[in-house]
Design goal:
Elements lengths: L1 H6 L13 H6 L5 H28 L1 H4 L9 H4 L4 H20 L3 H19 L7 H20 L6 H27 L13 H24 L1 H7 L7 H17 L7 H7 L1 H20 L1
Helix pairs in contact: 3-6, 3-7, 3-8, 6-7, 7-8, 8-9, 9-10, 10-12, 12-14
């Protein structure tokens, strides 16, 4: 069971909570039907993303065997056979499609775009510098769109923009750890040759600034303040600012090689900023 959980990357399901964002920000979290649709969308994305992870491991099996950490993955280590993994992948894709169809064909279309895009990523696009992190970022945007489609909500342009920027930032930060591994003589993904520490560090600093500025504009936007029926949203800037700076510290000072998901799972400071941010937004939307 442990190897199968590793195969489907269950710990990465944290990313799929983005599908709940449109419902949460709409202020309709009390609607049972909408909550049900959001949960089913989450499950459909979990199945789809797990299938993609299996395909990615299949295409990278030889490369992963030479990697210090990825060599321990079920396919690379031989803990699970390729045939078994492909059967699991096929079943997950069928289950994802069935769940999405139970909600709306539009949701199936969004998830299908996600699947096709990530298959292309696994085969080819991940080897193209910058395009690889753009595909990852767009995957998060599709999660937001899927969540919006499932609950019949028009996603805010601010949410879409900030999701893209944050996902791009985190994906590039992960590339930084790969560059460091390569500098230490370890074999990593081929497209790392298109990056270096100077470029990544400058770009991360730039992206961090853009994210914070965009979020400040979001908080100060008149239509957003009308939606929240409050001018206290600016307080949340403190949590976003500290979360971004903490992540930069982990990347630049602590030189963490963990994926963004594992950083969120492990780091108490970032967990605290997320909990405080969500609590404040929830209070403004639902309890004042």
């Amino acid at each position: 069971m442990k190897n199968f959980l590793k195969l489907i990357r269950a710990e990465q399901y944290l990313k799929n909570f983005f599908v709940f964002a449109p419902l949460f920000f709409s202020g309709e979290m009390a609607d049972i039907l909408l909550i049900k649709n959001a949960i089913l969308t989450f499950l459909s994305f979990c199945c789809a993303s797990s299938a993609i992870y299996i395909l990615n491991d299949y295409f990278d099996i030889n490369e992963d065997r030479r990697h210090p950490k990825k060599s321990k993955r079920p396919l690379a280590s031989g803990a699970i056979s390729v045939k078994t993994a492909m059967i699991v992948c096929f079943l997950l894709l069928i289950l994802s499609t069935a769940i999405s169809l139970s909600i709306t064909i539009k949701l199936t279309l969004v998830i299908s775009i996600y699947i096709i895009l990530n298959i292309l990523y696994s085969i080819w696009l991940k080897h193209v510098s910058l395009l690889d992190v753009n595909i990852i970022a767009f995957g998060f945007v599709l999660r937001i769109v899927a969540g919006a489609v499932a609950v019949s909500v028009l996603p805010s342009k601010w949410i879409l923009l900030l999701t893209y920027l944050l996902a791009f930032f985190l994906a590039l930060a992960k590339r930084r750890s790969d560059v460091i591994l390569q500098a230490n003589g370890q074999e990593v993904r081929k497209n790392i040759k298109g990056y270096n520490l100077t470029f990544i560090d400058i770009t991360l600093g730039f992206l961090a600034s853009v994210i914070i500025i965009c979020y400040i504009f979001y908080c100060m936007s008149p239509e957003i303040q009308m939606h929240y029926k409050s001018d206290l949203l600016y307080i949340s800037i403190l949590f976003v600012l500290n979360g971004i700076i903490r992540y930069l510290k982990l990347a630049f000072v602590d030189q963490t090689a963990d994926s963004p998901t594992l950083v969120v799972i492990k780091d108490r400071f970032i967990q605290t900023t997320i909990i405080c941010w969500v609590s404040l937004i929830a209070y403004l939307l639902y309890f004042q």
